[in-house]
Amino acid sequence: MTIFTQWYTGTDTNVAIPFPSGSGVQTEHFYIGRLGGEVHADTNGFDIQAAKQASRTFGYWDLAGPDSPSRTTSTTAQAWGHAQAQACVAAWRANSRVTGKTLFLDIESGNGGWGSDSSANRLVLEGALLAISAVAEPGIYITQTFWQQCFGSWDPGPFVLFLAGVHYAGTDCPTLEEAKGHWNALPAIGGMLPMIWQFQIPGCAGQTQDWDLTPYSGWLQAGRWLPTPEPLSSTLVDQTLAKLNAAVADLQEAITIIKQLR
């Protein structure tokens, strides 16, 4: 079990500021605002005041599934996902308030088009992830149940998991302290552990907005959530090879001694 000592709280979509009492949240470290959906940019769901107040602002995009009426018959499922993500990237580049380098794909039934054909669903998401990965870090907002319904057992590759769903703590709508205590029990989705958890939504204990939680801090400076692997230096490689050669020499010497004792 990982022990976390530092926590960061954030909000997404439309935010009520000042924060309502009873949430347990005192600081908005990050904000995740809506940039649009399908292939159309719009700021319905982007709170400018919240973006100003946050230390770092990210963007998300409502991704529609393969059965969306907006998809033309000549457009493949993968191309449909790719086109939506390209629109997302364009909206991200046009919004100077979004400084984060992670773009989240919002996948939920309300966005439409997500049917029972998991193969087609996967192609849409695959196309979207490919388009975003070319210029930014891809993220996905989804519940465990909806992931299983749409994609089944499928790992599409690295992405930042923004976990939706307020029931993982064993009770709906956990308090901030309860959410912290249940972080290590959160489920992995698509082969990825959560980086962010939306632990409260409107209606939770009288709340009127979403509350998000993370124990990670790399996004503060780097603007991205997943760590970037450090390349091995030539010095480190040389040192490792020297240790391996020494170990092989010791093993050969031990074998020689054993043979002599027989």
Report on the structure:
The protein contains seven helices and nine strands. Helix 2 runs parallel beside helix 3. Strand 7, helix 5 (176-181) and strand 8 form a beta-alpha-beta unit. The longest helix is centred in the C-terminal third of the chain and has 28 residues, at 234-261. With 262 residues, the chain is of the alpha/beta class.
Helical/strand content category:
alpha/beta
Output the number of helix runs: 7
CA(first)-CA(last) distance: 49 Å
Q: Main sheet?
A: 8 strands, mixed, barrel
Q: What's the CATH superfamily of the largest domain, by name?
A: Glycosidases
CATH architecture of the largest domain: Alpha-Beta Barrel
Strand proportion, as a percent range, falls in 15-25%
**Regarding CATH, which class of the largest domain?**
Alpha Beta
**CATH fold-level topology of the largest domain:** TIM Barrel
What is the C-alpha radius of gyration, as a whole number of Å? 23 Å
Total count of strands: 9
